[in-house]
Structures are given as C-alpha cells and as structure tokens.
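R.M. (postdoc): so does anyone remember the format we settled on? I'll just put the structure tokens first.
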C-alpha cells in the first residue's frame, strides 16, 4: 500500500515510519511541516530507502495537502501530526486548535475527496492516532479507560484532540470514510523530544541539574514503549474495523516520582560507585494547572481483535531508553541549545 503518514518526523510518527519501511512493503509519504518537535535524524535509518519520501507541508494548508495527495495517490492515511505537549498548550493554545482541529479537518476532507476521485471509496483507510487524555482523569480507584469511556478533556491539548476524534467519527458516519481511532497512553523511548517527563529527566540528571517534579509527584501515567505503540498503530491500520476505536496502553501504571527515581537509579548504576546519588536532584515544584491525576488503559479489545500486546516491561523499556540517551547525545544535545533549554513551561497561560 501507499501510506501517507502525517507527523512522521516526530517522536511516535518516526517510529511508525521506521517500522513501515523496515518491517512491511508499504511505501510512505511523510507529511510533516517540521515544527520545533521534528527531527530528520529520527528517520535517518530509513530515509534513503526508495519507498520513503518526505514533504514539508502544513496539514492546515488545504491546497498544499491536496497537491501532495494527488501526486502520491495513497491507499491510506496514518494521521499523527499534532501539537502534543500539554504544558505548551497552556502557554499558547492557538497552535493546538489550528493543527489538531483545523488540520485534522483539512486532512479528512482531502482523504474523503481522494477516496471519491480515485475510486477507492471505502477501501481507503484513515487511521487517526489519539490519546487517552481525551477521557480526562481517573481517581485512584476507578477502572481503567476503555473504548466506552466518556470524553471529558481538561487541558487545551486534550480538548483539541477530543475535537479531532469527534470530527473523525463524524466523517465515518456521515461521509462513509473508513476511519479507525486509536487512543493510547503515555509513550516513552528513543527520539523523544526532551520537553516530556522521561527524556527531560534523563538529560537533566545527566547534567546534574535539578529535576522538577510537579506537585507531590503522585500523578499516575500508564507507560508504553514507543515501538510497541508503532506496532499497534500499523496493526490497527491494516486489520482494524472501520468505525471502531481501539484503546492502547502499556499496562504499566507508575507515579511520576517512581519514574524519576528509577531514572536516577539507572544513571547512578551506569556512572558506577562514587558519584553523588541523583535522587538528591529531585525538587517538588508548582503543580501543572488542571493536572490530571491518573491515566490507565484497558487494552483488551486491541489484544482480542488485533492480536496486539506490548512486548516490553516498563523496567526493560526504561533501561533501554536511558541507554539510548547515553549513546545518542548527537541527537538530543543540539536540540537543547537550538530549540528548548529545559525551562519550566505551562505556568503562565495566555
Ligand atoms: P511530536 O510532538 O513528537 O511530533 C509531532 C509531529 O507533527 C512533529 O514532527 C511536527 O513537525 C508535526 N506537525 C505538527 N504540526 C504540524 C502541521 N500543522 N502540519 C504537519 N506536521 C505537523 O508528537 P508525538 O508525541 O509523536 O505524538 C504524535 C501523535 O500521537 C499526536 O497526535 C499525539 O496526540 C498522539 N499521542 C501521543 C502520545 C505520547 O505519549 N507522546 C500518546 C498518545 C497519543
Ligand atoms: O497520555 C498520553 C499523553 O501523554 C499524550 O497524549 C501527550 O502527547 C504526551 O505529552 C503525554 O502527556 P503528559 O502530560 O502525561 O506527559 P508529560 O511528559 O508532559 O508529563 C508526564 C507527567 O509528568 C505529568 O503528570 C506531568 C509530569 N511532569 C512533566 C514534566 C515535563 C513533571 O512532573 N515534571 C516535568 O518537568
């Protein structure tokens, strides 16, 4: 198949691109505008493959999207392009509305018209990659989110993703586009931009800088290794039922404090005896406004219908991730100087 992947220079999109080129015969057109979160190094291992191409197109730009799609003539779409950082959505929500809502709308329109024009009709597939954050927050004792959880987003980011999910469902029901939605929990792994919890703590701890833990560090996230998510996305794209939603998660709930302490211990172990314990760098700082307490996913539908389960435990995945950051400073070091220096985000609001 010829597959348009949007956001394929980002963290998860690049894992999807690497997976498609390495493990399938599909051709890929990577539609990525190249925001601050994009890195070409994340697809360097497959960029020379003749089945891979990138175009620097903004999905909000309907005409540019139309031209790229007409030229490539895709059989399907895997849509990941988004503004993805909750803290940045507090500082500046506008880009989130533009890309996540308007951009998804433009892409749905382009896919719908391409399905009609090319004669593929409902044979053209559209996989929308979304998040568990659209369901809001769980209490400590609530059952995990699943496909029937009500939408209750709490941040500008999650509200924009919820809006995009609703558009995708509407384009299936109203226009017959063969859409599938995945709602996934927190990802971690290689090529993760060092603004999110795990990579930020790794690069700060490596440089012996303070480790800012929001609130009391007792918020819970359900962590999934990014390459397991990429496998789930491609499996849902190939075998998911149109009109369906699949909840994807790592079955690995951890408090933020547990995660940061585990990173400190892994780095101390790598450094050997004598270094001062990195747990001493942890500082509790002002909480994130509207901070969701807990996310967790029941992924049994994905397991039963798609035959997908995570391949790594959180402990193995985190050890692999820490080692990757130690060995790949070429990738993350330039980002700190040029794009983001690790300062606190998401407390100003605008
Ligand atoms: P990311 O921020 O790392 O990457 C986003 C990519 O999209 C970047 O390469 C960027 O250049 C591109 N992009 C942004 N705006 C664009 C536009 N207008 N036009 C074209 N390209 C644009 O994001 P990520 O963490 O890889 O997340 C990818 C998707 O997965 C998002 O839709 C996100 O909501 C979803 N998701 C993320 C997680 C997570 O833990 N990171 C979990 C579940 C779902
Ligand atoms: O659940 C899926 C979502 O996971 C995705 O949809 C988002 O795109 C992705 O960014 C992620 O959202 P979170 O807000 O959960 O991720 P983040 O890494 O920003 O924060 C994880 C937790 O760690 C959260 O409770 C806030 C906390 N945190 C974060 C940072 C950056 C800190 O305590 N300190 C920090 O410096």
């Amino acid at each position: 198949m010829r597959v348009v992947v949007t956001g394929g220079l980002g963290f998860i999109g690049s894992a999807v691109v690497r997976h498609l080129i390495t493990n399938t015969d599909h051709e890929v057109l990577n539609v990525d505008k190249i925001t601050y979160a994009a890195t070409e190094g994340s697809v360097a291992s497959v960029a020379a493959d003749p089945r891979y191409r990138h175009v620097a197109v903004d999905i909000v730009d309907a005409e540019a999207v139309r031209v790229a799609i007409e030229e490539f003539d895709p059989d399907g779409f895997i849509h990941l392009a988004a503004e993805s950082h909750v803290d940045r959505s507090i500082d500046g929500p506008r880009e989130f509305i533009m890309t996540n809502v308007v951009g998804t709308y433009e892409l749905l329109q382009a896919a719908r018209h391409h399905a009609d024009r090319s004669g593929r009709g409902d044979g053209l597939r559209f996989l929308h990659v979304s998040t568990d954050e659209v369901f809001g927050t769980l209490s400590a004792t609530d059952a995990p989110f699943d496909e029937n959880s009500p939408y209750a987003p709490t941040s500008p980011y999650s509200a924009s993703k919820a809006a995009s999910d609703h558009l995708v469902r509407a384009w299936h029901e109203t226009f017959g586009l063969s859409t599938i939605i995945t709602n996934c929990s927190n990802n971690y792994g290689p090529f993760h931009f060092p603004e999110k919890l795990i990579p930020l703590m790794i690069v700060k701890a490596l440089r012996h800088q303070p480790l800012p833990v929001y609130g009391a560090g007792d918020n819970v996230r359900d962590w999934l290794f990014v390459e397991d998510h990429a496998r789930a996305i491609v499996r849902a794209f190939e075998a998911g039922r149109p009109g369906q939603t699949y909840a994807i998660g790592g079955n690995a709930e951890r408090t933020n404090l547990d995660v940061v302490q585990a990173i400190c211990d892994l780095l101390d172990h790598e450094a050997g005896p004598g270094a001062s314990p990195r747990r001493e760098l942890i500082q509790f700082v002002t909480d994130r406004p509207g901070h969701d307490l807990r996310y967790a996913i029941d992924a049994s539908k994905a397991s039963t219908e798609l035959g997908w389960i995570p391949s790594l435990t959180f402990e193995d995945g985190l050890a692999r991730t820490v080692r990757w950051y130690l060995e790949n400073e070429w990738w993350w070091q330039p980002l700190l100087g040029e794009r983001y220096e690790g300062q606190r985000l998401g407390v100003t609001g605008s």
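R.M.: ...and that's the designed sequence above, right after the tokens. Also worth knowing: The mean pLDDT is 97. Residues 84-86, 131-133, 185-186, 196-197, 200, 212-214, 219, 221, 256, 288, 295 surround DAU (ligand 2) (CB under 6 Å).
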